[in-house]
Amino acid sequence: MPTTLKAGRLAGIPIEINVSVLGVAFFVVWTIAFQILPRVEPEAAVGLRLLAAITCALLFFVSILGHELGHALVARRHGVQATAITLWLLGGVAKLVRQAPNPKAEFQIAAAGPLASALLGIGFGALAALNSRFLDWRLTFVVMAWLGAVNLLLAVSNLLPAAPLDGGRVLTAAIWKRIGDAEKARLISARCGLILGAGLSVAAVIALVWQRSLTFGWISTFVMGVFLLVAARAEIAGAAIRGRMARTLISQLMTTHPKPVQDSQTIDQFLLTTPPGGFNVAQPVLRWDHRPIGYIVPAHAAEITGAERSWSDISSVMIRPDHAARAWSNETVEQVVDRLDLDTKAVIVVHDPVTGSEIGTMSDGQLRTVLVYPDTWGRLPEMDAASSGPHQSPLVGQQG
């Protein structure tokens, strides 16, 4: 059973609803219908209170959708498309295809969500005031006032300067503009999110132990703290890895003029002649010493098991030239990954940007030396140059 349901499109953007939304909807309906409205209008029928509460829940999710749509539409103005907007347990998320291109875009995309929530909050508050002034429908007043307060709270809380909250993105934009390094700015902002998440979680646990009772407010604070911890950890990892990708040139990873092999060899023969440290090197496959008819990586060939290795020649498992990716030696890993659709068995043929001639190769195994997961604080281990081969020359944006 799918956990996320398709709910159509809005402004050309697919809308998805996670089943966890049902829990939030139940909580909103229960709170409005059986806790708030009985105090305001005790004589109102249960059915009428439920109708008002369900309407409130629906408008609440419309408000969340408006918040995320604000992110998505502003992102589109800056050339960053949104693949979907998903509503889930802790609100919503606009899934962007890539990061903002500059600090101005980062700021405007981030600020659009809280601005939308603030405008919705003011709008619902105005409707509550008009109702109180001219109609005096108490149930309607409670629904509008609750929605106004929640939207304003959403706008303010999202502006806390800690990623992945919108305020963290605003902080990222400010630091990015000042230091000129996007990923370092994102790393600092995500570390703030890690500290905030840890603080909320610890404070909630202390309060729950001190009170010796499970109160909804502190349980919610604990859940939010854990969410921030997990999300900030992912932000830290992404920023650290993207930072290394932006600093690493293809020429630092590629194997320069790797040793060619003849297509007549069997897979067994090829693997037996693979030099130490060359397991991830993409070697050109030749036929009669002419131009390469393909490229083969020992690590890929080793996936063939059993007797098939002894009779299958390497030309049956090689990557053909028209299926190999192409890159310039002066490109960064980030530029190549963003430009190319690389799979798990990628072979990249590297060319000299001046002459256009083929000067080296790189495999997905060599690329993975850049994609090492950092520690909790975002510190990366030193790259092991030996892991990518014996012939060395000196890497999905979301708004919440």
Task: List the keywords.
3 domains, CBS-domain, 4-stranded mixed sheet, 13 helices, 5-stranded mixed sheet, elongated, alpha/beta, 400 residues
Summarize it.
The chain is an alpha/beta fold.
Model description:
The chain has 400 residues and is α/β, with parallel strands linked by helices. The chain folds into three domains: 1-159, no CATH class; 174-247; 250-395, CBS-domain. Helices cover 52% and strands 14% of the residues. It contains 13 helices and twelve strands. The protein has helices at residues 21-40, 46-77, 103-135, 138-157, 166-179, 182-211, 216-247, 250-253, 267-272, 298-301, 308-311, 333-339, 364-367, and strands at 4-10, 13-18, 82-88, 91-96, 255-256, 261-262, 283-286, 294-296, 325-328, 347-351, 358-363, 398-399. The chain has a five-stranded mixed beta sheet, covered by helices on one side. α1 (21-40) crosses α4 (138-157), α3 runs antiparallel to α4 and α6 packs antiparallel against α7. The two termini are 26 Å apart.
Structural topology:
Layout: E1 4-10, E2 13-18, H1 21-40, H2 46-77, E3 82-88, E4 91-96, H3 103-135, H4 138-157, H5 166-179, H6 182-211, H7 216-247, H8 250-253, E5 255-256, E6 261-262, H9 267-272, E7 283-286, E8 294-296, H10 298-301, H11 308-311, E9 325-328, H12 333-339, E10 347-351, E11 358-363, H13 364-367, E12 398-399
Parallel strand pairs: 2-3, 6-7, 9-10
Antiparallel strand pairs: 1-2, 3-4, 4-12, 5-11, 7-8, 10-11
